[in-house]
Design a protein that fits this description.
Elements lengths: L36 H12 L7 H7 L1 H29 L6 H9 L1 H30 L9 H20 L2 H26 L20 H12 L15 H30 L11 H9 L2 H35 L18 H14 L4 H29 L13 H20 L3 H26 L8 H9 L1
Helix pairs in contact: 1-7, 1-9, 1-11, 2-3, 2-8, 3-8, 3-9, 3-14, 4-5, 4-13, 5-6, 5-11, 5-12, 5-13, 5-15, 6-11, 6-12, 7-9, 7-11, 8-13, 10-11, 11-12, 13-14, 13-15
Length: about 475
């Protein structure tokens, strides 16, 4: 069974319409195995989190109490609304492209193209952060990888190897994510257990060491980076088995796993070890493992970050690749971007393009990367919330296999709170992030009008899948 391919987006069913038969592609392609529930849960987990690696900066920025409260409260004001929006729209429009389809159906192809550009750029930048995060842990064991030529070579080799794994197929990526998820979380369950006898609950109430200034920009960027991207898996909807039933279950299950994977290790480690706030930076969990349980757990945690990075990278690259595939099918990118491998039926050009961009971006620092990711992602999410609300009003009778159980007034409140946070993240960004984001947005707008010009010239390689069918009918 292949994914639906329609030039703008899949049409939702009305309440009185019957479920159509399996949609057919204009051009038959090799059949690929669909994603089942368990692999999808772990792909979403890796899209969003991958474990608490990288969460240490929240303690360093604002102290234990605010960090723990942040990871307890933030999922309810941000992650839950984003996941609910994703569950409704991904089951109403289950095609490759995800949020691009939603913006296109709500406001037209220009906004669909802009949504695709913002989300794709943020996802590719996010992709670049994973090899950097991996090396921040590995360098504790192999200091030679801290800087210079060895670090550049390591980033290149890690990136190319992980991209090749994605080329082998989405089903392989899904079941690999299950194994990697369990193995990468094991050292955090162990460090939590070993911390219990040493916990002093009063340490959880600390607002940070005296004289250490709070870094709110870093604090909120860390929370945001560790708990967003719930909607990225929507770009895989065309490759999921029974997406109308599978997506809501997968999102709910992944949310539970993600929340516990942050809160429990943070409670254990901050309660067991006296606070040295300056040490709470990326990679500090490995040092804590040595202090609490011994070097054996430190080495396991080092291995865990490598396994987690593999899962994070594979899930994120899959999302990028199938978003590119969906945009090519919709005519927002040249059709060549939707070409699939004859061997594995994977969108190999959609894999290569994010890989090359990620290689360039990965030579920035981890903090610079996540700041750029968050700003671009915030732009896309504001448009996504607007699309969600407008589609509820524009298509009230569309058949929604899953529907958020709130009235329009309730939906406005649900979207307003996280939208305020999105605006805050954008306001506190550095000037460099503004400049880069503005330039990328101008490029995205220019690209849309370039594509429209090419299609008016009837250039075959720039036509959408539906345009191609129309030409053949003529």
């Amino acid at each position: 069974m292949t994914a639906p391919q329609i030039s703008s987006s899949p049409q939702p069913l009305l309440e009185d319409e019957e479920q159509p038969n399996t949609p057919q592609n204009p051009t038959p392609t090799k059949k690929s195995k669909k994603l089942a529930l368990i692999p999808l849960i772990f792909i979403i987990f890796f899209e969003v989190s991958g474990g608490p690696y990288g969460a240490e900066a929240a303690i360093g920025a604002a102290g234990p109490l605010l960090a723990i409260l942040g990871f307890l409260i933030f999922p309810f004001i941000w992650s839950v609304p984003e996941a609910l929006v994703t569950a409704e729209l991904a089951t109403t429009f289950p095609g490759n492209g995800g949020f691009v389809i939603w913006a296109d159906k709500a406001f037209g192809p220009f906004w669909g193209s802009l949504m695709g550009s913002w989300k794709l750029l943020s996802a590719v930048c996010n992709l670049a952060s994973y090899p950097v995060l991996c090396l921040d842990y590995i360098k504790l064991v192999f200091p030679i990888l801290s800087s210079g030529f060895p670090r550049y070579i390591a980033i290149f080799l890690i990136t190319m190897f992980l991209s090749f794994l994605n080329y082998l197929g989405l089903s392989i990526v899904g079941y690999t994510a299950v194994v990697l998820g369990v193995l990468s979380l094991c050292p955090f369950w162990l460090i939590t257990l070993f911390s219990i006898p040493k916990i002093d609950p009063s340490r959880w109430l600390s607002l940070g060491q005296e004289g250490v200034k709070k870094d709110w920009n870093l604090f909120f960027n860390t929370l945001f980076w560790n708990l967003n991207f719930w909607d990225n898996a929507s770009t895989l909807a065309g490759e999921v088995e029974q997406p109308q039933k599978t997506f809501p279950k997968a999102l709910f299950s992944a949310g539970i796993v993600t929340c516990f994977s942050y809160v429990l290790p943070l409670l254990g480690t901050t309660g067991a070890v006296p606070l040295e706030q300056g040490k709470w930076t990326d990679g500090y969990f490995a040092d804590l493992a040595a202090m609490i349980a011994g070097n054996w757990l430190k080495y396991w945690m080092e291995l865990g970050i490598v396994l987690s990075v593999i899962g994070l990278y594979e899930a994120q690259l899959s999302s990028c690749a199938y978003q590119i595939l969906g945009m090519a099918e919709m005519g927002l990118l040249p059709r060549v971007f939707g070409v699939r491998s004859e061997w594995f039926n994977t969108p190999w050009i959609g894999i290569c393009v994010p890989t090359l961009v990620a290689l360039v971006v990965s030579y920035l620092t981890f903090a610079d990367i996540i700041s750029s990711v968050n700003f671009l992602y915030s732009l896309g999410m504001l448009l996504e919330f607007a699309s969600f609300l407008w589609l509820r009003r524009k298509m009230p009778n569309a058949k929604r296999p899953y529907q958020v159980p709130l009235s329009m007034r309730g939906l406005l409140v649900m979207c307003f709170v996280p939208s305020c946070f999105l605006v805050y993240v954008m306001v506190v960004a550095h000037r460099t992030v503004y400049i880069v984001s503005a330039l990328l947005t101008v490029f995205a707008i220019g690209w849309y009008f370039f594509m429209e010009f090419c299609k008016t010239k009837m250039w075959f390689c720039f036509q959408s899948a539906e345009d191609k069918v129309d030409d053949e009918d003529l």
